[in-house]
Amino acid sequence: MKKITIFPSRSRCALRLMLPLALLCFFSGAPRRADSARVFTIVNMCETVIWPAVTPGSDSFGFGGGFALRPRQSVVLRAPAGGWSGRIWARTGCAFDASGNGTCATGACGTALKCGGASGEPPASLAEFTLASPSDFYDVSLVDGFNLPVAVRPVNGRGNCSVAGCDGDLRRTCPPELARKAAGGRTVACRSACDVFDTDQYCCRGKFGGPGTCPPTAYSKQFKAACPTAYSYAYDDPSSLFTCSNADYIITFCSDRKKQVCSYHNNRLVCSDSSRSGPIISMLLLMLALVFLVLHISV
Description:
Elements: H1 12-27, E1 39-44, E2 51-55, E3 74-78, E4 85-91, E5 95-96, E6 102-103, E7 126-130, E8 136-141, E9 150-155, E10 164-165, H2 170-173, E11 179-181, E12 187-190, H3 193-197, H4 200-203, H5 218-226, E13 242-244, E14 248-253, E15 262-265, E16 268-271, H6 277-298
Parallel strand pairs: 1-14
Antiparallel strand pairs: 1-3, 2-4, 4-7, 5-6, 7-8, 8-13, 9-10, 9-14, 11-12, 15-16
């Protein structure tokens, strides 16, 4: 965790000299140390604890592939050097013992807290990434079903870096035949039609195994209405697959796609604003607040 230190009183005079210089360097475009590490910020805006999973994950990326995240808590992960291709999703209703063994109501990767390279059990809302050059590919997929709203917001990238994801909560509108229910009858997830009925038509296979022969169904249209920038079925590419160059990513569970969220890395605050003014405004406000604090202390 990054710590903020308040300067001792004997440094006030030096601060009066340093702060104008810092502001001058900031606005003059003085070069800063480049940090090429790709950053994933995972945010829990849900009302309950979730257990994000990262696959493939490692001890250096994703805490071995799984961890707990409390409401309003976030974690920053640095992607492996040389690119990464994989999935991030949230597990719900989990209970793990001290050895990291347990169960989850949705999204489980077996019985382990740390998924490593294991996939999640459907239904689960998936954030999918391929970090590459010159462009990344990313999407949110409901092809394997839905368990939580999730949005993927690129920051620091170049190109058409749109927000991918799902605003709606399909648990509230899930057709009864697709609903995954917990004890007491509460719907905890919405299964895909392929998972429930296992037919060629719903699974886009056999004679339906192509974009020209596998159109959206009534079920996938309902998913699409709730989540317009997420995959609702296998060939839903035009409005669901996005590209961006050299971006960092903020993955937010249970948040509106249009709501701004921020991540602090590379020694600056970066927010999910499509313009470049977001980081500049944030830094300006931070600097002005620091100037006011120093002047107030020195009075």
